Amino acid sequence: MTGEFEIDGSGFLPLREVVYDALRKAILKEKLKPGERLMENTIALKLGVSRTPVREAIRMLADEGLVVLIPRRGAQVAQISRQELLDVLEIRESLDGLAVVLCCQRITPEQEELLDEAERAFRDSIGKSIAEIAEKDIVFHDAIYTASGNRKLVQILNNLREQMYRFRLEYLKQIRDFDEVADEHGKITAAIHAKDIQAAVSCIREHIEKQIETIGRTLPE
Amino acid sequence: MTGEFEIDGSGFLPLREVVYDALRKAILKEKLKPGERLMENTIALKLGVSRTPVREAIRMLADEGLVVLIPRRGAQVAQISRQELLDVLEIRESLDGLAVVLCCQRITPEQEELLDEAERAFRDSIGKSIAEIAEKDIVFHDAIYTASGNRKLVQILNNLREQMYRFRLEYLKQIRDFDEVADEHGKITAAIHAKDIQAAVSCIREHIEKQIETIGRTLPE
DNA sequence: GATCTGTATTTTGTATACAATTATTATATT
DNA sequence: AATATAATAATTGTATACAAAATACAGATC
């Protein structure tokens, strides 16, 4: 092993990743609006790449649920309905429940520390930007997911979160009292430390149900 | 609207679908063994198509979890470990539970009939080929999933089933008494008809837990 | 005037060609 | 003989070209 220059490092992402990021951001920021068609050629020209990586990026987005593919007709930005969002939350309530159960049974001391850290970080983020609060919230929940010791579960829950992403900022803006959310996080954390499965499950379910309520108010069909 | 002839119907599948089916079957039948590399060129030549549809098919299989993608090094048949399988079953136990809860709350009379039909069909399949039993089992569980009224849930559960597919036949061969399985299906069905959520959930969880046990015995790490 | 049909255009599906990276082999050096 | 290095081959990533299908539009027919 000679010099090991990090030639690549942060630098060379595959083009498909670059295109993916660009499209994803555009969709999340609603620069590409739901229902809008994504034409390979147009996007390729706009980004200065060929159609191939664009195609692959679009398919990645389709897996994530951000775009829908119509055979022989291309792709368009997914029109996520209120119903779909509620469906996702219904599943999250169940799987977040599973996650805390497993978490109580399997969490390691190091993971308990990470969880505490994440909980504090969320509390500290209150008052800062919505984006920052959102990020810390993700970290907190991710700490629980990871501590469940079930990799597939982590993957599914992350995917479900991604599908809600577009509405997340909107949703967070609706929340009046973030301290209340932080308290919920605190209760969940405490229950996990105490290995109190019952308490942990009911706390997390309540946590999600509040989200369902808020969504219900925010997005009237 | 004139005649509505189903001209297409069975006919023209996109090549990527053809390749996908071919590879999928090969993996499930273990003609392509876990760990084996999938080289685009080789497959393309073998199937008489170009690399483009092969690439897309491989990526579809990656979504399904049947192959893993290694950047700049191609794909290989996924090596599903005992742990992964148990992880999947852990999630299924939770989500099948959610499915029957929702099913009790939302099932329509027509769906109740379909459920009964599926339950009978499974019972009738006992003694026939393992493949047939497997198929009827899928139909039964699918009837429950569909009746949950949560599309995303149906999609996730189908995906989880697909990930177990390779082990399914092996697993079914282990089962001594299919009548017992049929009885479990019967209890679940009855609980759903009675809208007895508690009974339905405990029946389905027990049903899955038996699978976990069997897998535990079948695949010793 | 409405509808059908044929043509032109756009767009996706597929094939192929080229570039960049990784794996392999052979050679040289110690 | 073992290791390092250089040359070569194999393989993925990307671009481009061509084919087939879908769409849009214009003109013809009733």
Describe the protein in words.
Two copies of one chain form a homodimer. Chain A is mainly alpha-helical and 221 residues long. Chain A folds into two domains: 63 residues, Winged helix-like DNA-binding domain superfamily/Winged helix DNA-binding domain (Arc Repressor Mutant, subunit A); 137 residues, GntR ligand-binding domain-like (Four Helix Bundle (Hemerythrin (Met), subunit A)). The first copy, chain A, is built from nine helices and three strands, in the order αβααββαααααα. A three-stranded antiparallel β-sheet of chain A has the order 1-3-2. In chain A, helix 4 packs antiparallel against helix 9. Chain A is elongated, with a radius of gyration of 20 Å. At the A-B interface, helix 3, helix 4 and helix 7 of A face helix 3, helix 4 and helix 7 of B. Chain A binds a DNA duplex (30 and 30 nucleotides) through helix 2 and helix 3.
